[in-house]
Amino acid sequence: MSVLKTINAVKQPRVKLEFLGVKWYSKFVQGEPAGPSVKEVYGPINKRMKKELSEIQTTLSVDRFIDLDRSIGNYFVDPDGNTFLDTYMQIATVPLGYNHPAMLNVFKDQSKLKYIANRTALAMYPPSNWAQHLKRILMSIAPPDMGYICTQMCGACSNEQSFKSVFIWYNRKRNGGRDFTKQEIETSMHNKPPGCPNLAILSFWGAFHGRTTSSLSVTRSKPIHRLGFPLFEHWPAASFPLYKYPLEENVRENKQIDAKCLAEVEDLIQKNEKKGWPVAGIIIEPIQSEGGDNHASPEFMKELQKICKKNTIAFIVDEVQTGCGASGKMWCHEWFELPTPPEVMTYSKKMLAGGYYHTQEMLPDKGFRIFNTWMGDPARLFVLEAVIHVIKEQKLLEHVRKVGDYTLKGLTDIVKEFPNVLHSPRGRGSLIAASCKDDPTRTKILTNMKKKGIIGGSCGPTSIRLRPSLIFEEKHANIFLDIFRQSVKEM
Amino acid sequence: MSVLKTINAVKQPRVKLEFLGVKWYSKFVQGEPAGPSVKEVYGPINKRMKKELSEIQTTLSVDRFIDLDRSIGNYFVDPDGNTFLDTYMQIATVPLGYNHPAMLNVFKDQSKLKYIANRTALAMYPPSNWAQHLKRILMSIAPPDMGYICTQMCGACSNEQSFKSVFIWYNRKRNGGRDFTKQEIETSMHNKPPGCPNLAILSFWGAFHGRTTSSLSVTRSKPIHRLGFPLFEHWPAASFPLYKYPLEENVRENKQIDAKCLAEVEDLIQKNEKKGWPVAGIIIEPIQSEGGDNHASPEFMKELQKICKKNTIAFIVDEVQTGCGASGKMWCHEWFELPTPPEVMTYSKKMLAGGYYHTQEMLPDKGFRIFNTWMGDPARLFVLEAVIHVIKEQKLLEHVRKVGDYTLKGLTDIVKEFPNVLHSPRGRGSLIAASCKDDPTRTKILTNMKKKGIIGGSCGPTSIRLRPSLIFEEKHANIFLDIFRQSVKEM
């Protein structure tokens, strides 16, 4: 029986339902099973589907297929009927779990279907009342003092286009807003300076910002993402502060790490200026995610922003993975209490489409500069409206902070129990991780977990990360912690 | 009254309906007005909406808003009630006109809603039976002998990712498929060769391939797209054959143009090899669109492909604007009757999402190389299914060829009538254009046309282009030709 027929509207009273022969209910999405159940991790149907898919595209990254009719809430059901508690949620992209009724219902409102049947070129012919839609939806969750929005499709293109906004701003700051010279216009067609100037974006070792050319040039997590591809050779990378845990026992040392990394940033800015590739923007994740769930302190972020201001460099915060409530605030950088907003903050993933918020001075001065055909995805904006509604209605930010603290406490206890295997438990809201003693150990733990019914994520050289949906509850945390503990114990 | 309530299913008998006080019917979409009607080109509601939007984003490229409740078929209705015959169709992206019932109906099938509520990370966790969906939909229209598909989001990212496929293939060809060296792995993290090798994609003057860094590096249409942004300085551009019209009177001269351009390509390949930036791929549009509706001959394309084969260079055909039936064949490059398929063919726009078809040897050899979080958009795949169904059911390719020939003939007559103003009428299917004597003349003609109710497009330095939907009929062509003629005459 299809889940689509059994799930009920958000506000209906809780009812128990039968699903895969198990009775369950949930505070947030009705119809979850009581827990995971795995028969055969890689079953015959999954194998067949993978073989079929490999006839027309690469399947080298495919782990398993998902049965969208049967997956529900925090539970991922594969076509062989294996049920997993999903703590990775499609690479951190699923805001409200699977088959959330609020999201399923959006296009039952037939007036919304026209946004699917008629996708317009937003920057030339926006739909009627487009400003009102943007204000009601995207601007209702704008980061503090960021009053402008540029809608895009995905995280990588949001970063790419935001860099262009930064370059426009930087050139204007440097040349006083004069018009382009004849030489600039001519050389630009040959991809050469001064028309296409040598300008750089500085990023951090371990960063992940996407896989198009500029977003990949600032990505510094793994060789496999970049081997064999031409990238910007002169774009610099600085060390990200990698703290010693527990933080409270390493205060002085971690402060020194901050100072060292900040000095490196200043040094690279000077070096790149001398090299003829001045730094126009610095991009950073509030928590380095793919790079290993590396947390920098609010003090580091504030000092970094000061360095940007001092050097006329745009401060770009990449919230593609950390945004939309995952940290327990709508935007993770709100935890830093920066005195002024960053110039640019990019988003995607749980936001269902990409884009960036920015300050007024980052507006382009001419048309067709920050432009492409679609400029985002209006249909998905209306799905986001449902997500935002549920986040507010169900007080999910508070919920994420509470469940996050609970989960991190449990994880910390397990780390203490196995000090030779695990270390450095850390987290903000649902963005939780711990490190393993080495990569093979991590792989074994994740494999054990999967056999017992948990889909988990890895990050950095040795870490395991959680990226659950915003409706992950303490009862799910208990299942995760129990299976995680067993998986470590069985090493 | 909303159009959504009055339009009927595709197969219902034609009925006349009233809309904006005019009676109409259409072979393809019911509910079209009898013709355009314009009260005030930039009316007060449009102005107000633009002012509202400018409070939160740039509106420097915004022409007008579109009323999606009232736009229908080939007619664009703005919020002031102006009705335009749309021959530009959202920068060539609308396949079946506005509010086509087949597209509106897709998500009335509730089983499809789950693909909107649950967007998975396609390259890790595809939905059940994903291969079957891809085969039934995308592979049913695959270009001849191109058996592999990589789904993406938009045209620019399709080109970006296809270049990476090309680089992987090229490196494998050059190094015999050996594994990465320690030096390559180390230097790759610094964006430096040999890990990130100096490799180039060759493109053509006038080309448009997108606005992310690599796609913009091969775009060579206008300075405003690129001024102020760092791009790949050593990626070469060759001359695109710009023929003299009428073709039948300039056969010898145009053959010489072909030969000259091909020699230039060979020369650039040699020069770039010497410079240490060997050409790994050549990208070309079957018809240069943004660059001026420049058509190259089938002979040129065949010779270009030969040069690629001779030099172990991938031949990349960019069908973002020309594909999905616009040329009267599903893919415009089918007109060239190439002896073997190109290595890569990219698409987007009328296809509703991006991607590229490719040959088997372009498959990556390792996982997570051609990868990103979403890898396309399953929800839009099902909308494309409806589009493909209508194209086949209604024989729209034949229709496009017939109406295209009719329109081009009419346009040619007008060009002959005004030889001092217009020249070089040209086209394939619905991809039709003519050149004006200069840019100010073009602007005046397009302004006149808009006042009389036609939305048209410009391209290249002096051309006017048509990019109508696939359901543009002779009766629409008559309206276009009549208004175009008047607009030229009133110069």
From TrEMBL, chains A, B:
Q: Which GO terms describe its biological process?
A: gamma-aminobutyric acid catabolic process
Which cofactor does this sequence's record say it needs? pyridoxal 5'-phosphate
The alphabetized UniProt keywords are: Aminotransferase, Pyridoxal phosphate, Transferase
Short name of one Pfam family = Aminotran_3
Keyword DNA-binding appears in the UniProt entry: no
**UniProt keyword annotation of Transferase present:** yes
Q: Which GO terms describe its molecular function?
A: pyridoxal phosphate binding; transaminase activity
Q: Which GO terms describe its cellular component?
A: mitochondrion
Which PANTHER family did the record assign? 4-AMINOBUTYRATE AMINOTRANSFERASE, MITOCHONDRIAL, AMINOTRANSFERASE
Q: Which family does it belong to?
A: Belongs to the class-III pyridoxal-phosphate-dependent aminotransferase family.
Its recorded name reads Aminotransferase class-III
- Organism equals Popillia japonica
